Amino acid sequence: MSGVEIIATSPNRTFKGFQVTARRVNNSTNPEELLGIFNTTDGDSKVITCLGQPQKMLGHATNATRAVVNATWTAPTQNAGDIVFHATVVENKTVIWYDITATLRTSNNNNIQPPVHTVPPVTTLPGLPDWDECGTSKGCFLYPGSSKTTCSGDDCVAALSYRSSGDLFTFELTAEGQDFYVAVGFSEDRSMGDDQVVICTALPGHQTVQMSYNPTTRKTTNKQYTIGLSNLSTKQQNGRVYCTFNSTAKLVSIKEDGSSRTFDLGKEKYYLFLAWGPLYRGTDVISKHTQTAISPDMMDLLTISGAVPMLTGTSALITSALCLAAWCLLKP
Predict the structure, then answer these.
(1) According to the lineage, what is the superkingdom (predicted)?
(2) Using the 8-state DSSP alphabet, how is residue 42 labeled?
(3) pLDDT-derived band of residue 318, with 50, 70 and 90 as boundaries?
(4) Alpha-carbon distance 220 to 279, whole Å?
(5) Which of 330, 325, 93 is nearest to 219 (CA)?
(6) Domains and CATH numbers, the chain
(7) Distances in Å between the alpha carbon of 198 and those of 77, 172, 210, 228?
(8) What average pLDDT does the chain have?
(9) CA-CA distance, 50 to 46, in Å (whole number)?
(10) Quick check: 96 and 89 in contact, CB under 8 A?
(11) Which of 14, 19, 149, 228 could form a disulfide with 248 if both were Cys (CB 3.0 to 4.6 A apart)?
């Protein structure tokens, strides 16, 4: 068991929010892996379920101003090698300290166990979606925005395409915005909550495709392991963000209570949401979306639609994100 301490080192300096996780120093095959468990007896701190696993993150429980945080961390039972702690600290609404690190060296370099899961790499999209295929080889949902009534693809504010081949689905997403993310949500109703979300970022050096689950109890999205996704690609070009990925028909999310939630894209109909918005500068951390769009009806993704106009969304898909790669800070 090791002690974990966050200290405001400058005199009279304090902070309000924080999140801490532990990872391998060499985590290139699985940057999502979180190690050990945190414990705290401080009423202003809490342990957080992340990636469906309890106590994998330490965070703030209140907005109390503080100068120091103390907690304990218990290492995994199997040797994972050198460990690095990553912290993000919110001093105030305009001053956020990202990726503060401290390394804990292993005393034994023998029998180091590899990660259980391997995360697929994200590449740069070599080309752009062909929207002329809408209605023939793939279905499309197009959002023209409020200034026009129709659009055909890259002239849309946002757009989504899909196609299926056996048990595999291919999705293409795009939205207007420089240094933006774009996300798709699968929902059983027009209001987000208890839904599957895939979020794409394309900032150079921070290209990610992230699986998340929207719980019903709060307007945040809880990151899941990237299991069921493959052929991940993103790109920024001409003031737009683009993303493509393959998905198995069944996507499974783990709720905070440990129960599982299965989304079967091949057997069930879903409303399709699109959301897009800015990233925090120089990171893959999403902020509140600037806009959302929704399919007019629940959709059968085994059936190819034509170019279907999307409606302006009236409910939040995501307002902030928990357990993302660069650790977005949340209000408790």
Answers:
(1) Eukaryota
(2) -
(3) low
(4) 15
(5) 330
(6) 2-104 (2.60.40.4060), 123-300 (2.60.40)
(7) 32, 11, 6, 11
(8) 87
(9) 12
(10) yes
(11) 228
Pairing of strands 122-124, 96-104: unpaired
Contacts of residue 280, defined as CB under 8 A and 6 or more positions apart, other chains included, come to: 96, 98, 286, 287, 326, 328
Spatial separation of the C-alpha atoms in residues 157 and 144, rounded to whole Å: 5
Q: Which residues contact 160 (CB under 8 A, 6 or more apart)?
A: 140, 141, 171, 172, 173, 184, 272, 274, 310
Q: Please state, in angstroms and rounded to a whole number, the distance separating the CA atoms of residues 254 and 7.
A: 33
Tell me how many degrees the CA angle 146-150-156 measures, rounded to the nearest 5.
70
- Ramachandran quadrant class, 100 (left: phi over 0; alpha: psi -120 to 50; beta: rest): beta
pLDDT in tens, 78-124: 999 999 999 989 888 788 888 889 999 988 888 888 888 888 899 99
Q: Which two tokens stand for residue 162?
A: 């899909």
**Three-state DSSP state, 132:** helix
Instruction: Looking at the chain, list the stretches that DSSP marks H as alpha helix, in order from N- to C-terminal side.
Output: none
pLDDT for 328 equals 34
Give the Cα separation of 260 and 278 in Å (integer).
30
The one-letter amino acid at 328: C
Identify the DSSP state of 281.
Answer: T
pTM over 0.90: no
- First-to-last CA distance in the chain? 27
Per DSSP bridges, beta strands 221-224 and 206-214 are antiparallel
In this structure, what token pair is assigned to residue 150? 């129709």
Helices (H) and strands (E) in the chain, counts: 0, 25
Report the C-alpha gap between 304 and 135 in whole angstroms.
6
Asked if 91 and 17 count as a contact pair (C-beta separation under 8 A), the reply is no
